[in-house]
Amino acid sequence: MNRIDRYFLRYLLTPVAMFLFGLLLLYGAFTTSVAMAAVLVGELPGDQFWLYVVARNLIALEVLLPTACFLGMVMAVSQFHRDREAFALYASGVSPQRLARPVWLIAIVLSLLVAVLAIYGRPWSYRINDELVRQASIDRATPGEFHEVSDDMVVYARRALEDGGLRDVFAWRDGEDGREIVRAASARLHQDEDGQFWLQLEQGEEYRLGSATRRVAFNELWHRLEPREDTAELRRKARSTAALLAATSVKEIAEWQWRLALPLIAFFLPLLALRLGFQKPGQSGYTRIWLALGVYLAIFLLTSGLRTAVENDQLAPNPGMFLMPPLLLAAYVATLRWAAR
């Protein structure tokens, strides 16, 4: 990489870094306010406040990073031409295609970073988020109040124990054979290696109200807590990419396609930004910026639309979201031919 490449690379990355900082600052402020509200109402453990904020920002980074790169590079290339630096290079024999070399490097690095964030960072962040939400559903089960700890179970306790457990517990759930009512001396929440939550009930009685009512005394009883409707999506997004690849549900297929297609989409954004930033002498840069915003909005809406279509079984999983990279490739080739005229 020669001096021109290094100079142009720095010229491009400066506004990208500024855009990324601004987007993270705005989204971080929003996430922090949401987390503070969740702590105040008991939906988030107070000691896990910053872990929740970091996890939510890491989820957003897979989209904020390509966004900052695209918009920042469009502004940088446009400014490069308005300042006449580009035309000075062209006059000295440097072709516009020669300036694309640092952009290809940015595209490759950006694609790799987004791949790591989407394939590994995204499920980790959602797993943390899911665990915090599930834990809070038990932690906020204050004595004397009914709390829905899963889609099919409501828990009531008279007292709370110092170790986080509950004392004098009443539980109600819809079982496979009818409603079940449980009275227990104590209850505690556990989580297994797979991230599944279980409610351990000790020293009590279970009443099964079905076609034939039965009463069963127990020393220890375990209930698997099914995720609530509002956390079912979190559980799906928290699954590892390798596990999702074997899934048959259209929602899970859409999830892993998003993770694998996003790095490919991110790869083409810097290339398109370079072409959109080129302008003729005396041409207003605002036209290019507004055009770039329109192009980005179209890419964002089309990508989201393809994902929604796959989730709702309105679009065949093959090719599904992998329609987007060929469309971006065609758009890039079209800009090259248009510039060659």
Write the layout of secondary structure elements.
Elements lengths: L2 H38 L8 H34 L2 H7 L8 H40 L6 E5 L2 E8 L5 E10 L2 E14 L5 E13 L4 E11 L4 H9 L3 H4 L5 H28 L7 H27 L12 H17 L1
Antiparallel strand pairs: 1-2, 2-3, 3-4, 4-5, 5-6
Helix pairs in contact: 1-2, 1-4, 2-4, 2-7, 2-8, 4-5, 4-7, 7-8, 7-9
Question: Could you explain the architecture of this structure?
Answer:
By secondary structure, the chain is α+β, with helices and mostly antiparallel strands. The chain folds into 2 domains: 242 residues, no CATH class; 75 residues. 60% of the residues lie in helices and 18% in strands. It has 9 helices and 6 strands, in the order ααααββββββααααα. Strands 1-2-3-4-5-6 form a 6-stranded antiparallel beta sheet, with helices on one face. Helix 1 packs antiparallel against helix 2 and helix 4 crosses helix 5. The chain is elongated. The model has no long low-confidence stretch (mean pLDDT 83).
Overall shape: it is elongated
Order of helices and strands: HHHHEEEEEEHHHHH
Number of domains: 2
- Report strand %: 15-25%
Number of strands: 6
Mean pLDDT: 83
- Major sheet strand order: 1-2-3-4-5-6
Poorly predicted parts:
none
Main beta sheet: 6 strands, antiparallel
The assigned structural class equals: alpha+beta
End-to-end distance, in Å? 29 Å
Quaternary state, please?
Answer: single chain
The percent of residues in helical segments reads 55-70%
Radius of gyration in whole Å, from Cα?
27 Å
- Give the count of helical stretches: 9
